[in-house]
Write a structure and sequence with these properties.
200 residues; Rossmann fold; alpha/beta; 6 helices; binds 2-acetamido-2-deoxy-beta-D-glucopyranose; disordered N terminus; four-stranded parallel sheet; 40% helix
Length: 200
């Protein structure tokens, strides 16, 4: 009998072992701005199905999400009406240079996410993407802005009282950016793969 597994099957088994346990389609919601939309665009293009696709979050920085009754949360709730209350929510901290964001605002976003999600939902938190080979690239967030959002996300992740998980940085390299901030097609693809690595 021939028991050798083909490299293809071994690779497949490996990929499945690292894949998330519960891959409910569209069971994961997200909030954020156009930078979250860039991630969602690439995620869907890469075949991601667990998280929602893009739903028009352009310009929706932190202050668009601090009021749980805002128009932004109304858009989120329309997604909920379509897919059900998400069992996971990704909170992306996205800012304009002015006013930036405070930790209190971040905590408010997390509280609101819990309110709009299923009971006991897992909350993920990240900053907006950073630009490792051109850190001051994103004029909208300001030279220090992307790193500030990452620092806020990490702080929340370390804060046991918040019970949220920081999965890592999103990164955009020089050739993956179209206007200093936003991902071009290659950048969307890269962000989508980073999201797949975090969330399946
Ligand atoms: C923390 O979040 C997890 C989901 O990520 C949930 O199952 C758990 O009940 C939460 N713990 C507390 C103390 O709220």
């Amino acid at each position: 009998m021939h028991l050798t597994l083909s490299p293809f099957l071994v690779g497949l088994a490996g990929a499945m072992a690292t894949k998330r346990q519960a891959t409910g389609e569209h069971a994961m919601g997200f909030i954020g701005c156009s930078m979250a939309e860039n991630v969602a665009q690439g995620y869907v293009a890469s075949g991601g199905k667990h998280m929602w696709g893009p739903y028009g979050t352009g310009g929706l920085v932190v202050q668009s999400w601090t009021n749980t009754n805002s128009a932004s949360w109304g858009m989120f709730d329309k997604q909920v009406a379509k897919y059900g209350k998400p069992s996971e929510v990704w909170v992306q901290i996205c800012i304009f240079q002015n006013p930036g964001a405070t930790y209190d605002e971040v905590k408010q976003l997390i509280a609101n996410a819990r309110q709009h999600a299923a009971p006991g939902a897992k909350i993920w938190i990240t900053g907006q993407p950073i630009y490792p080979d051109n850190p001051s690239s994103c004029f909208l967030a300001g030279a220090q802005g992307p790193q500030l959002t990452v620092d806020l996300a990490k702080k929340a992740g370390y804060d046991a009282a918040l019970n949220v998980t920081y999965p890592g940085d999103f990164k955009l390299m020089r050739g993956e950016v179209q206007d200093g901030c936003h991902a071009n097609t290659a950048g969307q693809g890269s962000l989508g793969k980073q999201a797949l690595a975090f969330w399946g």
